Amino acid sequence: MSHKAWMKTVPTENCDVLMTFPDTTDDHTLLWLLNHIRLGIPELIVQVRHHKHTRVYAFFVTATYESLLRGADEIGLRKPVKAEFGGGMRSFSCEEDYIYENIENELYFFTSQERQNIIRYWLENLRAKQGESLHNIHFLEGQPIIPELAARGVIQQVFPLHEQRILKRLMKSWVQAVCEAQPLDEICDYFGVKIAMYFAWLGFYTSAMVYPAVFGSILYTFTESDQTSQDICCVVFAIFNVIWATLFLEEWKRRGAEFAYKWGTLDTPAESIEEPRPQFRGIKRISPVTSTEEFYYPPWKRLLFQCLEFVLSIQELPRIIRFLPKIVLAIIVSACDEVYKKIAYWLNDMGAW
């Protein structure tokens, strides 16, 4: 039976994120990680279950409404403000929670996507202490635990669960609908701003393509067969395309800004000042710019491959030294061939499921 059998048996009302383990996982590993999650992230509610068909253990992860509110404050989640307090979007604050729309409604204040983002943020930022280890895995101080265990294969998958009730509603109003506007707000609430913005652009682009298609068809119909007439029509159509492309670009800038303002991403901070991804590895140091603690990756490691490429360009060196990078590359490719093959098989099996 496929490992995706989990997705058909998990009640989404009691679980936001599912974490599965290989069927060979021992009890010590499960208890070690469970204790670290419960001590490091007390906001989370974790239940351990075992699937009798796949023989896979899994952690069912969720959180209480009060914990999610604190998490929204921690990550600066932007939520709509009531009209009497100025309206618009603002980063959530527990101290002023009364100013936000639907704050009294625990079922509808957070979308499933927002709940899962908060929980994922907590899980990815569970960090190891100095000297901690699990079997043959030795963690660096401050290293994210769960991304490292996932990379080592200790954790099989960490993924959010779909909410069947909302999926059925989207199936009717979006997938099965004909000649109706896309429910972009519902798409944004469920899948997030990036997905909603993509489909907003795709719908706008499809609609905008009607104009050059209609104009080009009319122009082609009334064009005579002589070369002069065809050349004139080509010039006219080219001018039309230049004007259309300019108007299309400017209109999308305006439409995209409206969506960004409506969905609260117009003035979000740039990625450069956000925290680095949890998978980033390095040594801890005090940043000379911000004077705060950060992970630092030595520049010499980044320059290593550039130096190897530089060796190839030096003609005066002995032939064997100039070919040394190629030899190293051939050895690495041969060593990784089996790994890539296993990944390809795994991806193929996942697609078959």
UniProtKB/TrEMBL annotation:
Protein name: Anoctamin
Domain of life (superkingdom): Eukaryota
Membrane topology, as annotated: Multi-pass membrane protein
InterPro entries: Anoctamin (IPR007632), Anoctamin_TM (IPR049452)
Location(s), subcellular: Membrane
Pfam name, any one: Anoctamin
Record flagged with keyword Glycoprotein: no
Taxonomic lineage: Eukaryota, Metazoa, Chordata, Craniata, Vertebrata
Gene Ontology molecular function: any one: chloride channel activity
A Gene Ontology cellular-component term: plasma membrane
Keywords, in A-Z order: Membrane, Transmembrane, Transmembrane helix
Anoctamin transmembrane domain: residues covered: 187-350
Main location: membrane
Transmembrane segments: 199-222, 228-249
Annotated family: Belongs to the anoctamin family.
